[in-house]
User: What shape does this take?
Amino acid sequence: MTDFQKTLDLVRLAQSGQREALDALFARYHHRALKIVRLRMGERLRWRQESVDLLQETFSEAFRAFDRFEMRDESSFLNWIARIAEHAITRAAAHDQAQKRDVQREISEDASTLTQAEAHAATRTWVVPLDRLVREEEERLLESSIAALPDRYREVIVQRNLLGRSFAEIAEETQRPSEGAARMMHAKAMAELVRLVQAKQARAQSSA
Assistant: This one.
């Protein structure tokens, strides 16, 4: 039985009301979905939000909407999960920005009792919780490099390398004028990613 047939069978069983099949389907795509969430979060949001929490929110929303899902081809389920995750990340980013404004307002109101250095330290502590670093060093290097890319580069890498979309599909999704333009953007994104990874490796070696 092919992977596609296994997924299709799980979808059919889940939509017939078998919760075990839905749990198995989510478990089957958990790792790939988590990687998509991590890469789409971006550098700032990764410091402020646990990717597993956003994935849980994504799966919860998918569970509620599962009766409306339609399995058209092998990539349908992962693409559907990726779209739901994108909405969850957008909401989290908006919430993060609102929190940032609230904290900055509080710091501004207390400026008379804080030195500039103290205010900076307070903001820095809020933005960068050190206990949220990814444990696996190589994966952390790659993911942090992708997170540092401009949004358009990060998205084209997710679309091509994780979701496996064609350049024609990417062009439509990212509103590029042609398949060739999408291909060129992906090439530029990969070149920039290689540059970032090499730069991070060089800095790590020089400080070792």
Remarks:
- The CA atoms of residues 14 and 94 lie 33 Å apart.
